[in-house]
Design brief:
Elements lengths: L4 H6 L8 H9 L14 E9 L2 E8 L4 E5 L2 H19 L7 H10 L9 H22 L14 E7 L7 H15 L3 E5 L8 H18 L4 E5 L6 H13 L4 E3 L7 H10 L4 E3 L6 H9 L5 E2 L9 H13 L3 E2 L9 H11 L7 E3 L8 E2 L11 E3 L9 E2 L1 H6 L1 E2 L3
Parallel strand pairs: 4-5, 4-11, 5-6, 6-7, 7-8, 8-9, 9-10
Antiparallel strand pairs: 1-2, 1-15, 2-3, 4-13, 12-14
Helix pairs in contact: 2-10, 2-11, 3-5, 6-7, 10-11
Length: 401
């Protein structure tokens, strides 16, 4: 009989990954050294806007420019944090020191008291723009700034954002998005978002078996509870998911209910996924070391960017579990996930692809930037490997606090 991590822990055995290994992974450097023999001085970090679209522009003193989508729905409210508390700390610094600069931003002017989604998203947008600048300077794609490139194509799953529609209507929608992307994996939502009721339970109990019946055994199926359940209902729902061989159960109870999540994980055999709202490296360390979740999901923007998220992936790897990042909203999140997955070994079978049309107008000579037959080709050009439309850039204006 194969001794799995969960079985070993249930039998009282020592964890497969000693805490020291996870701690060492958390502390280890992510950004490569020696990328450039000369300093890459950051001249400015600016927030730009064109209509409803916000993006960050990073400039070096040598004339290189990097860009990052700024998650417009959040940045439209959080922009003073980026402009007043993040950008001034980074300006004038050496981009080669970006990893240590993240700690500097966190500590500067008591910014640690501001930490949470608006702060870490502001850090992430600045970080990704600087990484794009740095990649262009050293002529390497983003993934190559962290490690060896191990993938050029990323299998994706298409996620539905629907909740409350009928099971039959959701099946029709899932068929539509599968046909658009060729995805071999899907994710749908359960519960009523942070609560459940009789109507949502009836929908869940019908939809779970109906997805398997409709899409067959070859389709990977994930489901997201968005914290909708208590422990008994999560276990009941999870048992049904196990019966129909779903691949993971995301956020069965509210995201900060760590003890309850572990209780569910210890009871079920379906992997539990968690991490979209986690803002702390030590929080992820606790989740991983305690086997509270078997798939960790740092959001590449909410959590503070690529470097911090790769640290989480390495902690997860030390424990033998997957790190499948969460994608918040549309924008260029699919592109960030592609570069993340290009260099991270333990990403899991499929990566999230929302497929909205609200992305910045970008093009790439090395990738169609969309899912074809269920796979997204990673751009191989320098930095993010994409170019913003020049007319879009000309119409953009500087945002001031």
């Amino acid at each position: 009989m194969k001794l799995t991590r969960r079985t070993a822990l249930a039998l009282g055995a020592a964890p497969f990954a000693p805490a020291a290994k996870v701690a060492d992974a958390m502390k280890a450097r992510v950004l490569k050294t020696g990328l450039s023999s000369a300093p890459v001085l950051i001249e400015s970090i600016e927030l730009m806007r064109n209509g409803k679209n916000y993006f960050v522009r990073a400039r070096s003193k040598d004339g290189a420019v990097g860009y990052a989508d700024a998650h417009s729905s959040v940045m439209s409210a959080a922009y003073p944090i980026l402009i007043k508390k993040v950008a001034p700390v980074l300006a004038g610094k050496d981009a080669r020191d970006l990893e240590s600069l993240l700690d500097e931003v966190y500590l500067a002017n008591s910014n640690y008291k501001w930490q949470g989604l608006p702060f870490w998203l502001s850090v992430a947008c600045a970080e990704i723009a600087i990484l794009d600048l740095l990649g262009k300077t050293v002529k390497k794609p983003l993934g190559a700034l962290f490690g060896n490139l191990i993938r050029t194509e990323i299998p994706v799953y298409r996620a539905s954002g629907n909740r409350g529609n009928s099971p039959e209507a959701e099946i029709d929608y899932l068929k539509k998005i599968v046909s658009e992307t060729g995805s071999k994996a899907i994710k749908f939502r359960l519960g009523a978002r942070m609560r459940y009721d009789d109507a949502s339970n009836r929908r869940d109990q019908t939809l779970i078996p109906l997805t398997r019946k409709t899409f067959g055994d070859s389709m990977a199926i994930y489901a997201d509870g968005n914290g909708s359940f208590d422990v008994p209902m999560a276990i009941k729902t999870g048992r049904l998911m196990e019966q129909y061989k779903l691949a993971f159960f995301e956020e069965p109870v509210p995201f900060d209910y760590y003890d309850e999540t572990k209780q569910i994980a210890d009871t079920l055999t379906i992997p539990i996924a968690l991490g979209e709202e986690e803002m702390s490296l030590r929080g992820f360390r606790r989740i991983i070391e305690s086997n509270t979740a078997q798939v960790v999901q740092p959001d590449l923007l909410y959590f503070g960017g690529m470097i911090r998220s790769i640290k989480v992936s390495r902690m997860a790897a030390a424990a033998g579990i997957d790190c499948t990042p969460h994608m918040s909203g549309g924008g260029l999140g699919f592109l960030y996930i592609a570069h993340f997955a290009s260099c991270v070994p333990n990403i899991g079978a499929h990566q999230e692809y929302k497929g909205e049309d609200d992305t910045l107008p970008v093009s790439s000579p090395t990738s169609p930037l969309k899912s074809i037959n269920g796979k997204l080709k990673v751009p191989t050009g320098p930095g993010l490997g994409v170019y913003l439309d020049p007319d879009f850039l000309k119409r953009a204006v500087l945002v001031t606090a």
